């Protein structure tokens, strides 16, 4: 039995194509439970076209109102971003607490944050969210342009709220900056910047922290729940020959991760953008279509934090749970470079360590290849193998490339060597 602290919720799961919608609904249910909402009713709602923002018609709004009354619903959770005007209209019409993707994840982050930096960043995301909700309250404030603390003629309470929010936001940003500065000094003292830095990235619950513990003998919290890790932790991987690298565990990503959260977590996420190499951990026990979607969602966030050009390896984890070997074959075909592991049983960990070591200290060779036009997509793969393009010469039939690449990684280009 769920305790009464859980509010009775209706989930409105929006989607564009039927594919995987049930799986995404399960994910939203898990997020709801994490944020103390009990999913009582779920409604799948197909959005008109791919780029349309969330919008539902009058008929559906009234139908949902009826369901709310019949089921004593206290909150409606929409797995999407909702325009602030429409948001206000819906919450008033339905007379319930309305939760969109941003507020749902922010409330979970608020529960999880444990360090000062984490707490400040969540608060920043929350205030930015509130500020965005005030849009449309009038442009008088910007026109008045009064000095800080002064109250312009005709300002309403909402406008003052908006002004207070903006002030709090800039104070918080300054506080976060100070912590960042302090962290940089500590990092310098610990000599972290003199050693290679690797970060664990990946979808939430993929097993990043479990892998962190295995590789560095740490005791980072591991839980079968979404967003267990919110604050970064850095520890050392020591190889047999005494070489060492720093490994950082960080916050997991999720489908449709709200942009303002990424903005607020810049300080935490900068650990990733400053890395030399990324271990992109993937839960390989999920259905193949979901795995592809997870990888895509993570890559989208990496792009947003300017980290998509950092060399990476896909670490397919939870291989002990994979009953379907076709998954394994398809993943090996689709993604490179990769490694299959189980952070729980230890399977593949030695190989992964070898690959990390090799990436950091490779024997590099210089090769010349020719790619016909239909194969030029391969160029995008070169950086994943930490290859450096030295020269590129296009012709009518394709492109001639001279590149510097680790010897062991050059295999995938064997067919194109000239
Ligand atoms: N079967 C199996 N379970 C695993 C494996 N690795 C991790 N898990 C489980 O997956 C769950 C999530 O693990 P975490 O290490 O907390 O995942 P995470 O990626 O750090 O998650 P967040 O911090 O929430 O982003 C836990 O219940 C782990 O025990 C594995 O190799 N096999
Ligand atoms: Mg974790």
Automatic annotation (TrEMBL):
Family annotation (Gene3D superfamilies): 6.10.250.2860, GTPase HflX, N-terminal domain, P-loop containing nucleotide triphosphate hydrolases
Cofactor(s) needed: Mg(2+)
Gene Ontology terms for molecular function: GTP binding; GTPase activity; metal ion binding; ribosome binding
Binding annotation for Mg(2+): 209, 229
Ranges in a coiled coil: 162-189
Keyword Transmembrane: no
InterPro entries per the UniProt record, alphabetical: G_HFLX_dom, GTP-bd, GTP-bd_M, GTPase_HflX, GTPase_HflX_N, GTPase_HflX_N_sf, P-loop_NTPase, Small_GTP-bd
Residues annotated as domain Hflx-type G: 196-364
Chain residues that bind GTP: 202-209, 227-231, 249-252, 317-320
Keywords for the protein's UniProt record, in alphabetical order: Coiled coil, Cytoplasm, GTP-binding, Magnesium, Metal-binding, Nucleotide-binding
GO annotation, cellular component aspect: cytoplasm
Domain of life: Bacteria
Membrane-spanning parts: none
Keyword Heme: no
Compartments in which it is found: Cytoplasm
Function: GTPase that associates with the 50S ribosomal subunit and may have a role during protein synthesis or ribosome biogenesis.
Family classification: Belongs to the TRAFAC class OBG-HflX-like GTPase superfamily. HflX GTPase family.
Subunit structure: Monomer. Associates with the 50S ribosomal subunit.
Protein name as annotated: GTPase HflX
Species in which this protein is naturally found: Thermodesulfobium narugense DSM 14796
Lineage: Bacteria, Pseudomonadati, Thermodesulfobiota, Thermodesulfobiia, Thermodesulfobiales
Gene: hflX
């Amino acid at each position: 039995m769920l305790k009464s602290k859980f509010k009775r919720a209706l989930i409105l799961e929006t989607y564009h194509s039927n594919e995987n919608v049930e799986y995404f609904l399960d994910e939203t249910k898990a997020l709801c439970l994490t944020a103390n909402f009990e999913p009582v009713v779920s409604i799948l709602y197909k959005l008109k076209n791919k780029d349309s923002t969330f919008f539902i018609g009058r008929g559906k709004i009234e139908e949902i109102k009826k369901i709310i009354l019949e089921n004593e619903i206290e909150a409606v959770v929409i797995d999407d971003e909702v325009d602030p005007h429409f948001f206000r209209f819906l919450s008033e019409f339905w007379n319930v607490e309305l939760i969109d993707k941003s507020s749902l994840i922010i409330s979970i982050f608020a529960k999880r944050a444990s360090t000062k930096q984490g707490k400040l960043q969540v608060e920043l995301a929350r205030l930015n969210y509130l500020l965005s909700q005030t849009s449309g309250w009038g442009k008088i404030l910007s026109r008045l342009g009064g000095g800080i603390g002064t109250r312009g003629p005709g300002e309403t309470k909402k406008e003052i709220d908006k002004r207070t929010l903006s002030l709090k936001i800039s104070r918080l940003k300054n506080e976060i900056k100070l912590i960042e500065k302090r962290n940089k000094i500590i990092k310098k003292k610990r000599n972290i910047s003199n050693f290679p830095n690797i970060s664990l990235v990946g979808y939430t619950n993929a097993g990043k922290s479990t892998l962190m513990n295995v590789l560095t003998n740490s005791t980072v919290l591991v839980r079968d729940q979404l967003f267990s890790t919110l604050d970064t932790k850095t520890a050392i991987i020591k190889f047999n020959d005494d070489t060492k690298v720093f490994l950082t565990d960080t916050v997991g990503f999720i489908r449709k991760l709200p942009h303002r959260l990424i903005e607020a977590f810049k300080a935490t996420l900068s650990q990733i953008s400053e890395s030399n190499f990324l271990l992109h951990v993937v839960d390989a026990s999920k259905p193949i279509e979901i795995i592809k979607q997870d990888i895509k969602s993570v890559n989208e966030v990496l792009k947003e934090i300017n980290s998509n050009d950092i060399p990476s390896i896909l670490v397919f984890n939870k291989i002990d749970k994979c009953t379907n070997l076709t998954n394994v074959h398809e993943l090996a075909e689709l993604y490179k470079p990769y490694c299959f592991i189980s952070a729980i049983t230890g399977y593949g960990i030695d190989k992964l360590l070898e690959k990390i070591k090799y990436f950091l200290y490779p024997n590099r060779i210089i090769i010349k290849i020719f790619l016909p036009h239909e194969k030029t997509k391969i160029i995008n793969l070169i950086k994943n193998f930490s290859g450096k393009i030295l020269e590129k010469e296009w012709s009518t039939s394709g492109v001639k490339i001279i590149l510097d690449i680790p010897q062991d990684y050059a295999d995938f280009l064997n067919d194109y060597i000239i």
